[in-house]
Amino acid sequence: MIRPKLSRMKKIVRALASLCVTMTLAAPLQAGITPKRSVLSSGMVLLTSEQRSLPMVSIELLIDAGSRYDAAGQEGLANLTARLLTYGTKRRSALQISDALDFIGASLSAGSGEDTASLSMTVLKKDLATGLELFAEVLTSSTFPQEEIDRQKQSVIAAIKAREEEPGDIAERRFAAALYPKSPYGRPVEGTEASVQKLQQKGLREFFERAYRPNRAILSVVGDISHEEMTRALDEAFRSWKKGEPSGSPLVPAKHGPAQVIRVNKELTQANIILGHQGVGREHPDYYAIQVMNYILGGGGFSSRTMDSIRNEKGLAYSVYSHFSAERKRGEFQLVMQTKNETAQEAIQIAKEEIRRIREAPVSEQELSDAKDFLTGSFPLRLDTNRKVASFLAQVEYFQLGLDYPGRYPDLIRRITRDDVARVAGQYLQPEKLITVIVGDLKKIGEK
Amino acid sequence: MFRRLAFPLVLFAFLNAFTKPADATNVREFVLDNGLKILLLEDHKSPAVTFQVWYRVGARNERDGKSGLAHFLEHMMFKGTPTTKPEEYSRIIAKNGGRSNAFTTSDQTVYFATMSRDKIGVEIELEADRMANALLGDSYFEPEKKVIQEERRLRTDDNPASALSEVAGAVAYTVHPYRRPVIGWMDDIQNLSRQDLVDFYKLYYAPNNAYIVVTGDFSTEEILAKIKSAFEKIPRGAEPPKVRAEEPPQRGERRVILKKEAELPFILMYYHAPNLKSPDNYALDLLSVVLAGGRSSRLYHELVYKKRIARNIDADYSGVSIDPTGFSVTGQLMPGKESAEVEREIDGLLEKIKSELISERELQKAKNQIESSYIYAQDSIFGQAMKIGYYEAAAGWRMMDAYLDGIRRVTREDIRRVAKQYLDRDRRTVGILIPTKEKSQ
Predict the structure, then answer these.
(1) Hey, which of A96, A237, A269, B302 has its CA 20 to 30 A from B274?
(2) What is the pTM (predicted TM-score) of this model?
């Protein structure tokens, strides 16, 4: 009954979330959501969905300020910039900001990924003016005080260290480094201890001035407010926010790392395993056929082949799944599992066998229709909270899917045939390119 | 994907921290002749329905040497009935656009699916079927045992903070079954037999030892008819044995050290505290928010922000449990810091809150945080169903109604009083994780 916050739990939640991202993006809007879109004079794209049933508002901002802009030796700059947004503005100190937010029971969090940074807020309707003022303030007038920079550097370095005790996380980072050699996508968003130490106030301020501009931002708002009300409120709150240089297009990774086996020795009872290679970007026309194929292989939870053969038949793993995650211009295929050290080789063999099988023999009609039924049938149900709708709308815009995407989605899935599945399995599952990462007790695994 | 969870309270910690559920006043209760209680809350904001079956059985009902039994049974409930093949349940739900899962806690075992209004009948039929006819097939027993042992390795054995909390729990309680981990000790899992599962199933899985919670987009009349037609025919079972164990008062601090491969030390303090049946539960909830709710809270501001000795800090009180529970303070240390220093600082701040009144504004801030979370929590029909379910197990769902009023009535004096009464060093267990490192490569 003692329940501390468990770091592993966060990992699982995150793994689940990344699964949901793919699914969510592949999911049309629920009935009754009527999104509106406009481009404000500042260049910011505003998306709203009015939901009057609860007196609350969820806000999600995506901005072209990700770690792909980090120069070599400056890794961690974008991340530190995002983290520092809520630690000091021209009007308020870090404590004044957090106290003001806590007093109205609002949440405001900022973070950075490889391609974009994001800022999220949930606030009661009655406190929206206060919340929005803070939201705008951190975006337009953050000051990056030296004292706070020092604090946050320490905190990021501690986070880098803490990640070393999460075996799944270690495997992820090693996989990214191997897949994207010499690319910002292969480096951790947080940077390294050495690179974070080197970051300077000047660099942070410059990056903030350049990247945090309204014409590089998508703002998604869901809750107890109309598009018109929100537009007026934004005009007021963001008056001082001026256009800057436009968004750059995300990078297309120049080259991917070759097949290899990466072994990390740690005193663990389980081997944490990733098998994977490059995938496709979100804009690729085969994206939907790949999602259907992957559902059958390992994306469909207890309906998937790997769950059947690795968990149910052999009892080798508690969690085993595969995913084709996609950013705009790049993507990854991964099959992820944990099994006791002694059975690592056996589990890897079975996983490879499943990859071979779906490439060489057509899936059954039943498997295909089950996959399509789930993907289309669950669509109205997945976006069941305001927060999820807000993040979905921002991504629809970011991936340029169009507000008619929800209506088009069922057809995009239904038209996939067994031949399509066979074709994309043959084309996008590439056994000769598999990068294998194993984190565990290498002696027991038989890798030493 | 991650169905059959052993520690949902942790997974849902974001709800647990200081959120409470929807208006109990809108919940409608029905009881079938066989004793099955049905709790319905219509909410039409999204086109989904969450259907949950809660069995009043968990690790709390296990006996020594049989830990992990309730959770093992939960896994085996997916191995089919005479009319549903093993593992087919999940496929049927998915094919109908639904998502399903199950979890076990100390107090209960819960099965659920979220589906559209026109498909939820499928789930209702399947749940009724496995309440009465689960096969717990022999040939699936050994492979599933291995799966559960892998689950234990993943969640506990290779997770330092989780391993610390397990061993601290075993020390904090001496008599009460809350001392046992929900997933079970590795050896106990190994020694469980299929017959253990069959007996446990027969004893506890009956309509009179379960209740149903449904939230979302349905009409009460329609869903009630479906539930009746599926569950009414299941006969009432014998009254299951009651758990009467009471933890004797703790007299003197207990300490537990865990040395394990890890990067950063971790500290945990667990104080025995009453559950929501005590009127002090409201003040304890607020106390946890004053201490660690948000960046401006006392512990966070001092330890994480100002002194930079902890990476993170949390104070958690979750009184929604059947038997008295605990108030805990946990934190991961910054690199190079000593647990003794962090412990001293935490103790200093706790002493302060026991001796000096917090400010009116601080109290108001904590109340505002709880009230806003109360509204945010209603954004999810699944979250609402979870709260109704937890309340029903602990003290009856009607207790939800008293919650906000109870919070509003708490005074600064109450906060000081409960801090003094329950944050008593003689009634706590302190757990410390000391990282060891054996880098062989």
Answers:
(1) B302
(2) 0.93
